[in-house]
């Protein structure tokens, strides 16, 4: 029994016949080879990750716009985020997506700008991120404010059918549905419905 307890120490200190090394030296060399293999695998996977990151970045940057404004530039302000829609009082599908133009007072950091807002927008913080701004091209004085644009209630328009052009009957399971094509007073023959 005493010989069995010393067996691990005997194996570590003994010389291996086939490789002419002690077991400790053989294990050390094997461990170093294993570490080299691991380091190579880590380097390989780092290169793969860099390649995939650069590919994803190139795909993401296709739609990205390089924007930079200066002080005294005029910009429109996007009002689509829900919070801003409520603040600006604009809602529904047909409302404008941008309001303004507003003058840029100064740049704050890399991607934020402070705007000169009118008194009616005093509740809105004047600093906005660059993605919410769109450059005003042309003279900002020529922009018509939306409040001054209105449709008169007395205006009306009636379209009168002029001529009957075509009739089709389509069959749906148990029913027959008729489709009729008319030429209206405001359309040409190509635009008839």
Automatic annotation (TrEMBL):
InterPro entries assigned: SH3_Tf2-1
Signal found in the keyword field: yes
Keyword Signal annotated: yes
Positions of the Tf2-1-like SH3-like domain: 73-137
Signal sequence segment: 1-19
Keyword vocabulary terms for this entry: Signal
Domain of life: Eukaryota
Classification via PANTHER family: CHROMO DOMAIN-CONTAINING PROTEIN, RETROTRANSPOSON PROTEIN
UniProt protein name: Tf2-1-like SH3-like domain-containing protein
């Amino acid at each position: 029994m005493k010989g069995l307890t010393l067996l691990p120490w005997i194996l570590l200190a003994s010389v291996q016949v086939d490789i002419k090394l002690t077991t400790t030296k053989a294990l050390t060399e094997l461990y170093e080879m294993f570490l080299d293999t691991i380091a190579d695998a880590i380097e390989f996977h780092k290169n793969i990750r860099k390649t995939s990151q650069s590919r994803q970045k190139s795909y993401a940057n296709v739609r990205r716009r390089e924007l930079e404004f200066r002080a005294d530039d005029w910009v429109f302000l996007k009002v689509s985020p829900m919070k801003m829609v409520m603040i600006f009082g604009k809602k529904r599908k047909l409302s404008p997506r941008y309001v303004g133009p507003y003058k840029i007072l100064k740049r704050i950091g890399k991607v934020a700008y402070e705007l000169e807002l009118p008194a009616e927008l005093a509740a809105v913080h004047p600093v906005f991120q660059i993605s919410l701004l769109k450059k005003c091209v042309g003279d900002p004085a020529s922009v018509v404010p939306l409040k001054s644009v209105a449709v008169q209630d007395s205006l009306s328009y009636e379209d009168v059918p002029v001529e009957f052009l075509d009739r089709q009957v389509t069959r749906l399971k148990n029913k027959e549905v008729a489709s009729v094509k008319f030429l209206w007073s405001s359309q040409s023959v190509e635009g008839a419905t």
